[in-house]
Amino acid sequence: MLPTNEQKEKPTQSAKSLSNWSCGSQYSPVERFVHNAKFMSLSQFCKIKHETLCVTVATTLKFAVSKYGWFYYGCTRCSSKAPNPEKAYECSCGQNVEQPIPRYKIEIYVSNGESKYRFVFWDSECAAILGMTAEFMHNSMVENGEDDPMVYPDELEMLLNKKMAFRVKVQPTFSQASVWKLCDDEAFVKEIENDYIVEDNQSKTEYAKLVPNKENLETSAVSMLPMPGQNPRFAQLYVYDTKNEIENRMHGFRSKSGVDVNIVRKLSEMLYEHNVHAQSFRMARDRLCEEVKMSRKVDSVKDINDSKETWRLAVRIMDVWSVVNNKGIEHLEMIVMDSLGDRIQVLIRHDHLMKWKEVIKENMTCIINNGSVYNNDFQWKVCDHSKKIVLLGGTTTKAIELQNIPPKGYFFKDFGEILQGKCKTDRLEDIIGAVSEINHIQSNTPGKKVVVSVVLKDLK
């Protein structure tokens, strides 16, 4: 589900902007955070039958890769979804949107002990943690030659392995919870956990109520300052979109002034050309963009495990073969290798053959994104890796020239090791030798193929 303007109760404060709640109020940020919400441990979410506003504590675990990717196209003013990402429209908030912009919508599994649940993180919360807008991140990927929305940028990893306090709306119909507010401040999370969330699969069932009065409506700038000798607990993060600064500033005018965007853009270009401060700013901005591009590193094959679902691999496809079972159902298997020489076996199931059969070519180099990780349970294994990769509907590949991965090669096994029983019985090995004898054995069963046996001698 994407946000609409009817969701008026949903605040815009994010993880690092809780300080403005404490201004002059007799209530702490924690009390404001839990206001009118039910305190529940994560283990109780599966028992909720109706939409419920809850406060809980959990740790972000791994991405739940959806078929829509990590962002959606929305209004430039509010977070509503655009009806068409390629067309201008007038949003229900009154904004005339010339070009919808990417906004974060990321599904993440969170955990607490043995309990796990799927949370949906929205634009403002993600931008506050990541320090950049979805539009900036998406544009950086496009400039780097990656325009597939199913490719999760490495920068999103900053959202994982964080213990946070959450204010969420649990939506049992979709088996998910929509994040309204969050905070990863350690003291804040600890206070929520100790004072509100009860362990042993129980929680306090009462709701937090704050009754406004004249006193707590007054504000004081002094209350935002830390006590002498103490560090501030909260900070506010501002994200400035320099990529579209001209359009963004002009969108701020309520009246239709008729200002020509092209004239403003030319004035901006002239400023960049002749003003030394503007030039320095542009250099710093371009350098930041380049650093973002370079930070999109790939994972090593040897590091693959089942701790996350968004592995990004740069590999060469060493070999591809088709397997047909006794029911006539076909699937593909292949072996891939990275620049370090580590190999892993890959499976393409029957229901995804049409997508991959024309894409996968032997000896090609490519980037594989979002392949699912499973235990290596192949009947016949071609490498020692304990895991295998399965290419599914959400997996993407991008052919790219990778000179640092050597071309297809073989890993020959010595005959002596085979005769001494040092090889695994479920492992397929490369061998090289001379054929010294050939025996043709005809099967007695009608319709069966001829079995041919050969005798090999090594070259020693």
From TrEMBL:
Residues 299-395 form the Replication protein A 70 kDa DNA-binding subunit B/D first OB fold domain. Pfam families: DUF223. It comes from the Eukaryota. Gene3D superfamilies: Nucleic acid-binding proteins (2.40.50.140). Residues 12-22 have a biased composition (Polar residues). Residues 1-11 have a biased composition (Basic and acidic residues). Residues 1-22 are annotated as: Disordered. InterPro entries: NA-bd_OB-fold, RFA1B/D_OB_1st. This is Replication protein A 70 kDa DNA-binding subunit B/D first OB fold domain-containing protein.
